[in-house]
Amino acid sequence: MSRSLKFNAVAALFAATGLALDTAALAQSGKPASAAKPGAAKAASLPQSARFNLGREARPDEIAVWDTDVRPDGHGLRKGRGTVERGQEVYDAQCAMCHGTFGESNAYLALAGGVEPGDLKTGRASRLRDPDVQRTLGNKLNAATTLYDYIWRAMPWTNPMSLSVDDTYAVTAYVLHLNDILPADGFLDEKTILTVPMPNRNGMTRNHGMSSVSAKPDVQGTLCMTNCATEVKVASELPEFARNSHGNLREQFRLIGKGAVDTSRYEPKPGSALAGVVTPAPAAAPVATASVAPVVTGNVTGARAGQLLAKNACGTCHHPTNRVIGPSFSEIAAKHAQRADGEAYLTKKMKEGGSGTWGAIPMPPQPTLAESDARELARWLMTGAKP
Amino acid sequence: MPANSSSTRVGRIQPAPEHHLDAATLDRAKAAARSGRRGFLGTAAAGAVAAVTAGRALADGPGAPGSALPPTGPVALGAPVGAFPYGMPSKHESMVVRRMSPGLTRTPHSSISFTPLQNLFGIITPSGVHFERHHSGMPEIDPQQHRLMIHGLVKRPLLLSMNDLVRFPSVSRVHFIECGANTGMEWGNVAVPTVQYTHGMLACSEFTGVPLATLLGEAGIDLSKAKYILAEGADGSHLTRTISLEMALKDVLVVYGQNGEMLRPENGYPLRLLVPGVQGVSSVKWLRRIEVGDAPWNTREESLHYIDLMPDGTHRQYTWIQEVKSVITTPSAGQVLLDKGYYEITGLAWSGRGRITRVDVSTDGGRNWRAAKLQEPVMSKCLTRFRADWRWDGNAAFLQSRAVDETGHVQPTVAQLRAVRGSRSIYHNNKIQTWRVDANGEVTNVQIA
């Protein structure tokens, strides 16, 4: 398709949107929209000029602040340089607590693994054919620029856009090093990042029917109406022990005109594998959007603390009684119980983060944690962190 | 008329006693009031109630003395007008809430809550139970501070405030939003117990906003070079998605209104994109930036997630369209049919390619099908409610629905999907859903061979 043909096709599409052009014509001519002459040439000329004169022009310096995106062709890359070595420093301090020291993931997306040495040559992560392979950033991602782009605008998760351009290049380089793509003495800058041989750079396809309404679907059903060839045999159903996994279903239905099964009182059928085994404990499916109560003074109850912990995602790293990524709340409470300035100390620690008190894994700073929330949580910790 | 008069007829509602005290009783009440015996009226009324209660053994017609029904008419003064400046559902509707699937995600700040489809009627999802998907939590945005930037391959880069945006000519349209991962937990086997969890990343609303084409025209888009746009949210992840220019100019809206009010915060307040028929992640919430470009962006949400793994190890990229799909919402898993007899089978059908043209239902696991009735209006890229009559004979049954859209695309079985795409692609699972009705009336989620 020639450029002018394509241009006309898009212009015609634009004309098909109707309202935008009709109102524009109305605004320009002062006549009813139907009186405006149709025509691709006229339609194409309309978008070139301002028509409603609403809003104001975005200045280049404003665009520069918000226009952070980076494409695989280098569009949007900023000048900068970062080494694998510097990347490790930043990574260990700000990333490892979630993604694991070796990118194996403590809890979140695994950054490394599942890459074979030959993949760098072929650009196809060969192990993705293996049904049991762990899918990681290393064996899925097709462009190093996307890694830079995401770290730059969204990481660290609780403090996005806090890394410098150079450190963003550095962390990108280190994550690629964890996947054996860059050597230990490697680096990235705005030029070399475009030449990184990503192990799955040829692993994406756009050859499918789901990019456009007019494209042909790949899987078509069968419009049979009677005596259709199908074997009605149950191939999969929820195992008995999982019946209450989403809470008591009886509480999730409007019991008007119908019943619902009480899964909390479910008892395994005699003879089943679960007969004689403890009946599953009733679990409550978490109800979404719990609101946070207004600030209280005085003692902080366990319920109030629970709301604040949920609101601020503290449970990501901390558990009430067990060491997870960070120390448990009961451990923190016990350690600082005798400290006279405990409340102020813990408030500051929560806000600013730190490392060394509980081992090598640092706690990142929490700039979005409200001072009042931190103070309440500190008070709760200093009074025993009771549930 | 005395409360317990012999003239009371079966089939009539027993009048409330306080309006129907006989003349002699009223006279005595007035006399008592004059003499300061203020408790008398209450005693008389209590006597009347006692008489009604005694009468219950004598008749059993609806509303008659002896019926279990309460008396008609006001029995107490209700709550005043204005008691609820923003009304909430009845306290008896507390089961109609979004729920999360335990263990599905590591943290509630990047997670999903599901629409309670089993408890909803019609096609409009109440805004308060519209499913949620946030990638870095829900930002709180002041509409007076919010701005939309439009830049890139445009003649006049624009900065629009909410004050500017609501002044553009607007449209209202009803569309579904379905997350690309809806039903994604069931590619391999049955994993969750009810339709809320199998299909609840689905909602449908009347959206009001400005066609994106209008705004791109205002900015002077360079149609000789532009091929794609990038939409970015104002949340912590700065969520970004590529959208084809074909879609951007056709029916994409920049939305501020939902079901007659402003967007809810969890659905993008004060501004979101709506890309009709396309997986929900493209309808970027808390929209703050649109860049016009000549190549797709390959963002994290287009190269690490929202890509579909095929059996040969390749990933399909930019799989935008939500294909033809349907599900029966009643009877559905978790419910119990209380008796044999008449039931209405009802559910939802939708397609990202346009209108639904037919829905068939089967009660024998797909051997035999019959057409369901489609509730008007049937709209493009919108939920369609279907209904079919059914008399349950008390035997085991397998309920299914199968939708067809205006392009002729027929909803496939899970076996047909797996034959092409395997079972690891996570996204775009539009299989025919099967609910099994056991002889005891219990309905469960199953997959049949």
Structure description:
With 387 residues, chain A is mostly helical. Chain A has helices at residues 3-16, 19-29, 40-45, 60-66, 84-94, 96-99, 119-122, 137-140, 144-154, 165-178, 302-311, 329-336, 342-352, 371-382; strands at residues 56-57, 81-83, 187-189, 204-205, 234-237, 259-260. The termini of chain A are far apart. Residues 1-49, 275-283 and 289-296 of chain A have low confidence and may be disordered. By secondary structure, chain B is an alpha+beta fold. Chain B is built from eight helices and 24 strands. In chain B, a hairpin with a 5-residue loop joins strand 23 and strand 24. Chain B is globular and about 85 Å long. Chain B starts with 22 loop residues before the first helix and ends with a strand. Residues 1-21 and 37-63 of chain B have low confidence and may be disordered.
Topology:
The complex is a heterodimer of chains A (387) and B (449).
Chain A: H1 3-16, H2 19-29, H3 40-45, E1 56-57, H4 60-66, E2 81-83, H5 84-94, H6 96-99, H7 119-122, H8 137-140, H9 144-154, H10 165-178, E3 187-189, E4 204-205, E5 234-237, E6 259-260, H11 302-311, H12 329-336, H13 342-352, H14 371-382
Helix pairs in contact in A: 5-10, 9-10, 11-14, 13-14
Chain B: H1 23-34, H2 40-55, E1 111-113, E2 132-134, E3 147-152, E4 158-161, H3 162-165, E5 171-178, H4 195-199, E6 202-211, H5 212-219, E7 228-233, E8 240-244, H6 245-250, E9 253-258, E10 261-262, E11 272-274, E12 287-293, H7 300-303, E13 308-309, E14 315-316, E15 325-330, E16 335-336, E17 341-350, E18 356-362, E19 370-371, E20 373-374, E21 384-392, E22 397-405, H8 414-421, E23 434-437, E24 443-448
Parallel strand pairs in B: 3-12
Antiparallel strand pairs in B: 1-2, 3-4, 5-6, 6-9, 7-8, 7-12, 9-10, 9-11, 13-14, 15-17, 17-21, 18-19, 18-22, 20-21, 22-23, 23-24
